[in-house]
Amino acid sequence: MRQEARSLRGRRRLGPVVEGDMSAGRVRIPSPYRDRIARVREELLRRKLDGYLICDRMDQIWLTGFTGEDGAVLITDTRVVLLTDGRFDETADREAPWARKVLRKQRTPDVTARELRRYRLSRVGFDPRRLDVATYAGLRPAAKPTRLVAVANLIGGMRLIKDAGEVEKIRRAIRIAERVFKRVAGRIRPGMSERAIAAKLVYEMQAAGAQGPSFPPIVAVGANGSLPHYEPGDAQVSGRHGVLIDWGARCDWYVSDLTRMVWPGSV
Questions:
Q1: Domains plus CATH for the chain?
Q2: pTM reported for the whole predicted model
Q3: Cβ pair 115, 83 in contact under 8 A
């Protein structure tokens, strides 16, 4: 009870705009991450949580800007901790130098549990949809006396409402996808395969500045267009059938998704 009381008093400080880092000293948190972290801390205070463990990569990127594939984030009222491995050591320094970086030699619950104990956290939330059963089963006993509390969609709910910067990234993804479609559709000729058209879409989107496609493009000739999530194959375009194209671009982790029908030749 004493530990929980101390923790609750500490949570009334919603956290500074400056965080500690092992190597760089104290570094100011840039926008928009500063505001997002403040919002999460307000929610932790409201839910009487000492911290929140983030295991979803897109939630991690949204909150910190750190894009490492092996990553988790622990946020408390005064700290943001990145848990990753040595492959992403330099990436963490570049993308989130203001956070405390912990490099894991092995991706085991023990390392995460050690960080929970380090800050003497009583109640730590997690999204049960993002933490697998095996990890939870190992983390729960290792983290004691910290109690793990299932709190679904805490970060995801915040991400539903886009800020102006996010909206512009989505619009850019749409603009690139539309521009590339017009270019590729104008070059479709009888005899071209679905696979070749899909490859052109991917190449042109990256050449236009996108990270890549939102998903593998769907190019379906004729009756193939009735198959959900169809994978482009060797079917060739003819003047007798329409071509369904479902594609999108990814720009700065935001995506577009469009669908069109193309009719090579006369209808």
A1: 32-159 (3.40.350.10), 164-262 (3.90.230.10)
A2: 0.84
A3: yes
Please give the single-letter amino acid code of residue 91.
Answer: T
Q: What are the residues whose beta carbons fall under 8 Å from the beta carbon of 28, sequence distance 6 or more?
A: 17, 18, 34, 98
Distances (CA, A) of 206 to 82, 156, 183, 191, 203: 30, 28, 14, 25, 5
CA distance from start to end of the chain: 76
Using DSSP's 3-state secondary structure scheme, residue 117 falls into helix
Distance of CA 128 to the CA centre of its chain: 17
What is the DSSP pairing of strand 100-103 with strand 80-84? Answer: parallel
**Could you read off the pLDDT of 17-66 as tens digits, one per residue?**
334 443 345 678 999 999 999 999 999 999 999 999 999 999 999 999 99
Whole-angstrom distance, CA of residue 216 vs CA of residue 227: 15
223: exposed, middle or buried (Cβ count in 10 Å: 0-12, 13-18, 19+): exposed
Can you tell me whether residue 264 is helix, strand or coil? coil
User: Shortest CA distance to 119 belongs to which of 252, 260, 39, 3?
Assistant: 3
Residue in the structure block whose two tokens are 């500690």: 20
Q: Judge whether 186 and 179 are in contact, CB under 8 Å.
A: no
